[in-house]
Design brief:
CATH class: Alpha Beta
CATH superfamily: NADP-dependent oxidoreductase domain
CATH topology: TIM Barrel
Number of strands: 10
Radius of gyration: 19 Å
CATH architecture: Alpha-Beta Barrel
Shape: globular
Strand order of the largest sheet: 3-4-5-6-7-8-9-10
Structural class: alpha/beta
Length: 342
């Protein structure tokens, strides 16, 4: 069935300037980390992407290893680009990354020039693209000189294979070092992608948000819903979602204390006229310091729900204080090692 984008799509979304660049990103972006591999029907993937674009989401975020199997999310999105978005390429921001395990042997992960450039070429081939809009170093590599990693990104940028350069899960100090190296090469650092939500606030403790403000670098927060913890999925207990799928959320985290706190947060959201997911996204976007919140979805209706957050991005001081009462820091930052100094 032929897809025609909604004519009013750009009236449904808020767009924010990304750091000191001229690029604007939607306040909500769609990530294809989960549910875009072989474990999800292709029509479901199409429905999710079509719904996102109809709601004004122009940014689609991928990585080389997204699946399962690795690479299959990019292949699926490449098909969607051909069937649904072929005429809209210049309306889209498409990003990919390299840093995690992708192929066997010593050149299949981390941050070497060999790996990053080969990975970018593979990603472009899988998606059928001449370039991506943003290409990221997915994680800091403690065994490769940062100059080499940034040099590889500079090569990708200068060759036109990426219009902008980003980093993900680098801590504040490493972000400053990376930005300085890129600046010496004449390459602006556009964006940083950290994990961030009410239950995982390392970017606040580390001072990363202050660093990005100082550097004029934008930010895209992934896992704003704490991998489903900050949705209605677990209000009645642990019966569905990633916690029972053996994916990336440890079910042991969801003990009765945490579940009770999540229920209290849901009550606050209801008082704001929002779902818990909408409030969690609005919380990440509060004050404008985070450029865009990166959501995932297993069905199109979840995209609709998340985009409802745009209707109320403001919090009173009392609401924020009450949220802090129940939104305790939990041990859910799977990317902590990438954020630490080695």
């Amino acid at each position: 069935m032929t897809y025609t984008p909604a004519e009013d799509r750009y009236s449904k979304m808020v767009y924010r300037k990304c750091g000191n660049s001229g690029l604007k990103l939607p306040a909500i972006s769609l990530g294809l980390w989960h549910n875009f591999g072989h474990d999800t029907p292709h029509q479901t993937k199409r429905d999710i992407c079509q719904t996102a674009f109809d709601l004004g989401i122009t940014h689609f975020d991928l990585a080389n290893n997204y699946g399962p199997p690795a690479g299959s999310a990019e292949e699926a999105f490449g098909e969607i680009l051909k069937t649904d978005f072929a005429a809209c390429r210049d309306e889209l921001i498409i990003s990919s990354k390299a840093g995690y395990d992708m192929w066997p042997g010593p050149y299949g992960e981390w941050g070497s020039r060999k790996y990053l450039i080969a990975s970018c070429d593979q990603s472009l081939k899988r998606m059928g693209l001449d370039y991506v809009d943003i290409f990221y170093s997915h994680r800091f590599d403690p065994e490769t000189p940062l100059e080499e990693t940034m040099g590889a990104l500079e090569h990708i940028w200068r060759s036109g294979k990426a219009l902008y350069i980003g980093i993900s899960s680098y801590n504040s100090q490493r972000s400053r070092e990376a930005a300085a190296i890129l600046k010496e090469m004449g390459v602006p650092l556009l964006i940083h992608q950290p994990s961030y939500n009410m239950l995982n606030r390392w970017v606040e403790h580390d001072g990363l948000l202050d660093t990005l403000d100082d550097l004029g670098v934008g930010s895209i927060a992934f896992t704003p819903l704490a991998q489903g913890m900050l949705t209605n999925k677990y209000l009645g207990g642990v019966t569905e979602g990633r916690a029972v799928q053996g994916k990336s959320l440890d079910p042991n985290v969801l003990d009765e204390r945490v579940l009770n706190n999540i229920r209290k947060l849901n009550e606050i959201a209801e008082g704001r006229g929002q779902t818990l997911a909408q409030m969690a996204i609005a919380w990440v976007l509060r004050g404008g310091r985070v450029t865009t919140a990166l959501i995932g979805a297993s069905k199109a209706s979840q995209v609709v729900d998340c985009c409802g957050a745009i209707g109320n991005l403001d919090f009173t001081a009392d609401e924020l204080a009450l949220i802090d009462t129940y939104a305790n820091e939990e041990q859910i930052n799977l990317w902590a090692r990438s954020s630490e100094l080695e």
